[in-house]
Specification:
CATH architecture of the largest domain: Roll
Number of helices: 4
Radius of gyration: 56 Å
Helix content: 55-70%
CATH topology of the largest domain: Membrane-bound Lytic Murein Transglycosylase D, Chain A
Distance between the termini: 176 Å
Largest sheet: 2 strands, antiparallel
CATH superfamily of the largest domain: LysM domain
Strand content: 5-15%
Oligomer: single chain
Number of strands: 2
């Protein structure tokens, strides 16, 4: 009987040890199972985050590949700036047109549309014994200088009336006359075509 009791004791001890080992193993399995579950949840969360990042990258790539005109915020601002510049240029153009029209109107009032000199100079053939005249017996025309006159404009006006005269001839007929500083109201002599 002792042998049986010893065997029973060994059997009981083995069963208890096996059950204790099973409980420890079960705890380890439960612990590992919990860790695996945590890893799977973390993996699912990271998969969702990767999917969201891929979508965002795709959207940014699409925006980057779109032409500049499709970008509303930048193109709208550029169009506003361009419209303002065009309006400014148009206003300057209108102001310039008004100034040109005023200048033309003033020229029309002062010289009948000419360059500021008398369009039909007073032509008078006189024989003068004045010492400043081209010569005592030389035919010439007298012309009174008006505002805005130039020697070339006066010569051109006389040529338009059939009097062939050059700027050089007018200067030669009027010693001391400064072509760059004509005095308004001063009488000058225009040599006649047959004058030498």
């Amino acid at each position: 009987m002792r042998k049986i009791s010893l065997w029973l004791f060994i059997l009981t001890f083995t069963v208890c040890a096996a059950r204790g080992q099973d409980a420890a193993t079960q705890q380890q399995l439960d612990k590992l199972s919990g860790q695996i579950q945590d890893i799977l949840e973390t993996q699912a969360a990271q998969t969702k985050r990767l999917d969201a990042l891929e979508m965002e990258i795709g959207d940014l790539s699409d925006k980057l590949n779109q032409p500049a005109a499709a970008n509303d915020s930048a193109s709208a601002e550029d169009l506003k700036k361009l419209a303002a510049q065009v309006q400014e240029i148009d206003k300057k153009r209108q102001d310039d047109n008004e100034q040109i029209l005023k200048a033309i109107a003033q020229l029309g009032k002062t010289g009948g549309g000419s360059t500021g000199h008398k369009s039909s100079p007073a032509v008078s053939t006189t024989t003068s014994t004045d010492t400043s005249a081209p010569g005592a017996d030389t035919p010439h025309y007298e012309y009174t200088i008006a505002a805005g006159d130039t020697i070339s404009a006066i010569a051109k006006a006389y040529r338009a009336q059939g009097v062939k005269v050059t700027s050089a001839q007018i200067l030669a007929a009027n010693p001391g006359l400064n072509a760059n500083s004509l005095i308004v109201g001063k009488k000058i002599f225009i040599p006649a075509p047959d004058a030498k």
